[in-house]
Amino acid sequence: MPRLSLVVPVYNVQGYLAECLESVLGQDYQDFEIVAVDDRSPDGSGALLDEYAARDDRIRVIHLMENVGLGRARNAALESARGDYVLFLDSDDTLAPGALGAIAERLTAAGDPDVLIYDYVRTYWDGEIRPNQRAALLAEAGPGVFSLAERPQLLNLLQIVCNKAYRRDFIAREGLTFPPGYYEDALWTFRSLITAERIAVLDRVCLLYRQRREGGNILATVSRKHFDIFEQYRRVFEFLDTRADAEQWRAPLFRKMVDHYLAILERPGRLPRDARAEFFHRAAADYRARMPAGFRKPAGSRGKKYALLERDAYAGLVGAKAVVKLRAKATGYARTTLGRTRRTALSLDYRHQLRLPLDENLALFSAYGGSGVSCNPAAIDAELARRAPHIRRVWAVRPDAVDKVPEGVEVVRTGSREYWAALARATYLVNNVNFPDAVVRRPGQVHVQTHHGTPLKTMGLDRRQYPASAGIDFAALLRRSDRWNYSLVANHFSSAVWQRAYPCSYTSLTTGYPRNDVLLTSTAEDVREARRELGLGEGVTAFLYIPTRREYQRGFEPRLDLAKLAGRLGPDAVLLVRPHPDERPARWPAEWRSEDRIIDVSGHRAVERLYLAADCLITDYSSAMFDYANLDRPIVVHADDWETYSVVRGTYFDVRTEGPGAVATTEEELAEVLCSGAWRGERAARARDRFRRRFCDFDDGRAAERVVRHIFLGEDLGDLPPVVPLDERTPAPPPEPSRDASALISTHTSQR
Q1: Which of 141, 117, 125, 127 shows the shortest CA–CA distance to 207?
Q2: In whole angstroms, how far apart are CA 247 and each of 149, 176, 273, 292?
Q3: SS3 content of the chain, % helix, strand, coil (to 5)
Q4: Which range (281-295, 412-426, 728-742) has the least confidence?
Q5: What is the pTM (predicted TM-score) of this model?
Q6: Could you confirm whether the keyword Transferase appears in this record (predicted)?
Q7: CA 563, 648, 565 angle in degrees (round to 5)?
Q8: Which of 12, 113, 127, 440 is most solvent-facing, going by the fewest CB within 10 Å?
Q9: What is the DSSP secondary-structure string of 469-486?
Q10: Rounded to the nearest 5°, which phi and psi values hold at 165?
Q11: How far apart are CA 320 and CA 576, in angstroms?
């Protein structure tokens, strides 16, 4: 049997789960097991648990058939735990290095106490770390073990179970279980501390207690579920009623109860506005029913709030809060004035438009900062035209890009009066980046963030530790992200990244990327037409080269001698070249312009059409690889500056070992891969298959339909088409050369 059992309940934490598990598996101390409970998580957390369990037999996974909540999920794990001690670790928290070894050592030194309490720090999304304000209570001076009666001040510690180790036979002896509902830790914590005969402390930070900006924390959730606190304290006091020796704890727990109730009432963002009075009256009833004889209220303003509860004087509490607000308003006048100055960035007309009703049949689209009609927004636009023609579709486009807009598309120029009016009045705002900082999300508006790729490079808050993030205002980034109602997801991997990189209150929709629908629905004739548009004849092998930008260099610096590479590939191969939009040169090198086997496709408005036309994708770290993989066609990675790129920008995995096909780290290696036929060999195909199974989760050709039917037409998610399994999908067929292209290239190479 292991010495320690770590109980890890899991729900909707795929962005944090790997870090949690790695913090345990990477400990120096190894005598433990992890009992993880998938509480019917709607994201990819359950699958991730299974992946870890397949690699490490110390992990056991329990998949619940229905979502039961944190407390009951822990109970399910307790039934399977085998260790001498049980530790609870929430799946978005982590252990500090060396924590398990220190805990095990202290348990042995203390002679196996019933409960061991250790220290924690709060870690915040913005990098701040705050120590436990009551850490002094964990000083190890005095007896090595003791009862709560000997150190009653321990009741003032935070009421959580994740900073304690519990002897398993003590749990069984006392029949400890978690009740359902919010605030489930209260009953367990008070009951275990009061009944424990032998308690020990460890004055060391073992737990990194994550404070997420959005989600995962009931304290930041507006809900009537906060009324669960009344039921939890009913259980606490019923427990006290069963014990003859519990009278000494009645007054301390009464004070804990009142402070807890007041905390819920006082903190914004917990109770719905129309539930505050009801909550207060419930709290007042508990106050009068449970107030111990001779109880003395605390001094000062705190005592006044106790008195208001005792009298059930909700009007008095509201009046006191109003006075506080007036004082804050007076003292904060300068700050308010500054805020008004900043808001002058909104035009007077925009402010006027914000007061007018929303147009329920208006949708405003934008892509890549107004560069044109493209990407996921364009695919949604097209589907919306088919399914909801009554909705007026308008595109926000930069003045210098208006001439690139297809005929028939309604346009407003970014920055114009019409643009700001559309931002104010449209019910639907669809973008693959973000609208300006000055935009406010009105009640009733629906902001759809489609994103524009699966991230290999770090995004959002994950960029903070890397040099390429210099100058980014992350607070402003999060304010923009706070406007999202929906975030579209192409795969479980992206969902986990977005959850952590943009910790906001949007809903993730596992629809797939609408722009990739065409890769699954196109026919052989569509492929031929895409090639004809580019002038590609039969028997020509088309290599689509899409490099990404480098933050560590200025402007476009070719990483390949394309003229030389085209010469080595021979007359039956063509290079379609599409640099990153931010690095496209104003004028191409002369040797490229004179080479008819190098085609500039920078201005092609639909990269998806280029994917259809290409036999193979050559890229470095562009998200194009994730989209192109849906076609199940060869991909070659040219990673010549990986060490620099990964250090400067940061990446989520090593594309050299986890990429979608053959890998070259020099220009010569790339030429050899292409000329030898290795780009389409068995080894490359195996890598591509692994990559597709990891990243092509939801792109099955019906993503745009799901988005339109759910967001614009209001259909329930359960009524939408289920995602077609990967092995049952039929990608667009590959080009049909008249003879084997790899043989042609090899022949030309040998002739040279």
Answers
A1: 117
A2: 12, 21, 37, 9
A3: 45, 15, 40
A4: 728-742
A5: 0.80
A6: yes
A7: 10
A8: 127
A9: GTT--HHHHHHHHTT-SE
A10: -115, 130
A11: 70
